[in-house]
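Technical appendix A lists one of the benchmark inputs used to test multi-chain prediction within the project. The record comprises two sequence entries:
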Amino acid sequence: MTPASAPLLRIAGLSAYYGELRAIYDIALEIGEGDILAVIGANGAGKSTLLKSVVGLMNRGQAAHIRGRIEFGGKRLDVLTTEQIVDAGVTLVPEGRRLFPRMTVEDNLRAGAFLPRLRAGADRRLAEVFELFPKLRDRRTQVVAQMSGGEQQMVAIGRALMSSPKLILFDELSLGLAPAVVDDIYRKVADIHARGVTCVIIEQDMKRALEVANHVCVMLEGALVLEGRPGELSEDAITAAYFGSER
Amino acid sequence: MNEELYWMFIDVANGLLSGSMLGGYYAVIAIGLALNFGVMRLVNLAHGDWLILAAYLAVAFLSMANVSPFWTLALVIPVMYVIGYLIQRLLLNRVSVQAAERKGMSPSFGLMSPLLVTFGMSIVIGQGLLAIFDSNAAAIRNDLSFAAIRLGEDLSISTLRLIFFGIALVMLAVVQTFLNTTHMGRAIRAASDDPEIAALMGMSSNKVYAVASGISLATAGVAGVMIGMSRSFQPFDGPTFLLIAFGVVILGGLGSMVGALVGGVILGIVQVLAGTYFGPSAQLVSGYILILLVLALRPQGLFSR
């Protein structure tokens, strides 16, 4: 599937390895500017590895590496370090949130604006994050380890926004959160998307993924097995691809 | 007042006062080690030798310029910062846990190799100092060595120790404020918690570690000048101070600068009181016994939750 405009992110022939073990196979994928792409698939299908590859977290010498080409706005990402990729405008909200547990809400958020080009506008972006998540403004001096999972997810998303990304990758956005909280988080993602940020979401809940996304891909055992617009793909086809059964 | 009771009071008051003053000095000796371990999980076995190197640096500076010993800090602090930054950048970052992983080696090798490297560094520094200076005891001459402030007829504190205590408070406050409020301070805390996520914040762990290591050696520079002003020293005196630093860190924990001060003060008070009641040789032994007791009964440290 080709997006209407030139793709924002183009992945070609991407394989990723942990040591000798190949975790994803020959992935080709294009994401248009302003898309919300949902990546679905069973545990171990390689969804997280795909996102980690994009932000350079698979470039770890002998421990993990990638082959293939990743371009973002025409710029090669696969040869850059994670720091440089974030500077280019791509960031990841990691699975399990991975906040800095002993820091306050505000310190976690400000950590997201470390890059020199971001420091001047950090106060303004902090205000924007507080506007999006008013709860965090009241809790700005609280240490994040004491917060609920939903609140921590807000901090993790806010922290990613502090780097003013053009593309945000959300790994397991709703995992372990109460349904009401998940509704709230998805409303925020819609807000973020409305501000012109392209989003990639890994989501276990297939129904929810299909509701929010305008572009879906299904991964199975490290390969990309199905891709399309939600309206064009039947639920049966997606389910079949998810479980790897014959259609 | 009963005379016996009076002298007991004087002994205890003296122990608490001098011990606390000594504790500030111990805290300064230890915070470099605490920073190294807290941020980079690096046990720097050469820490004591860096202290002695800084003391010699001050001696060399004073042999060229006839100024107050405190002015040597203006040279020693930046020089030690640069050494720390470069050592981390060029050497220690290459033998870290992450570096071992990149080369396909097990993380346990990554924990072991910095120990070997810093142990080797300790030998190189000691021998290097011996080659440049000599094995005769050196000292930083100053006119405060025997000065004291009288607080009562039988109670006084060393002027030098009081000044050191003041410097310690200022230094601990500066380092803590830096860690809490600056971009780089936040990056140091982030990279110590989770280097992978720190990279996602645009922080390069290798650069951040180099700055932390620079700060660590800069504090060691202050400690080295203090050591040189309060006693004579020789090229191979490093390990003695490494042990003091370990003691402070074990007692106070790695959490904060306040922890280092508290650890230092406890160690100082115990040593001075033991010296008062059991003679000078009990000073060192009492410190080690205290550390052993803490390790046996509360291995997580006195103040960790």
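The CA atoms of residues 179 and 186 of chain B lie 6 Å apart. The longest strand of chain B covers residues 148-152. Comparable benchmark entries are summarised in Table A2.
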